[in-house]
Each structure stands twice: as C-alpha cells, then as structure tokens.
Amino acid sequence: MTRVRFVAADGVAVREVVATPGDRLLDVAQNDGQPLEGTCEGQMACSTCHVIIAPEDFDRLPPPSEEEEDMLDLAAGATRTSRLACQIWIEAAWDALTVRIPPERRDMRGRG
Ligand code: FES
Predict the structure, then answer these.
(1) How far is the centre of ligand 1, averaged over its atoms, from the C-alpha of 82 (Å)?
(2) Mean pLDDT value across the chain
C-alpha cells in the first residue's frame, strides 16, 4: 500500500488516501474527488490531468515519455515536477507520494 497525499491548489487543504500498487494516479485522484477532469481518459491529448509532484518524490517516478512531455508543455501552470496523472501507476516501492493540484487550471467545460 502506498499513501498518496493530495495537496489542494490553495496549498493548504491536504487529503491522504491509500492506493494499491498498479492503481493509476488519475483514478486514485478522481476516486478521492480531486478536481482532475482527465477528459481524454489517458490518451495524452488533453492535459486536464496535470498534477505537480513533490520534488522529493519526483525522481522516484519513471521518467515521462516524449508524448507526455509535449503535452505538459501545453499545461497551464506547469512546473519542473509536473506530470500527467494518467501516466503514473502506483508502485509498491513508494512509501508515500505527495501530489499537488495545479493552481492555474482552465475549466474546459466553461462556466454558467
Ligand atoms: Fe488526458 Fe491525461 S487524461 S492527458
């Protein structure tokens, strides 16, 4: 079991959940009610699953593919430790993973 800690966009609210190795981070986040749309369902075509990994955890993740990096270039508020949550599968070796929801997000559904 791996503990996944979600830090809200405001940097204050924190929720911790337990994930099973093999779980996709996007699914773990959505099951917890985190505001990640994941519009393209993992096809690397939307970047609405963009998250920011804590720097101390980032290097433990398998590196992103070229397609993922290209999509991250388009993500609002992307940082050096940004990843697409649909491309991360929880590994047993990680004791914990801290994931921040990006502060700058565009709501693709629009409002009103
Ligand atoms: Fe679209 Fe991850 S769900 S890029």
Answers:
(1) 13
(2) 93
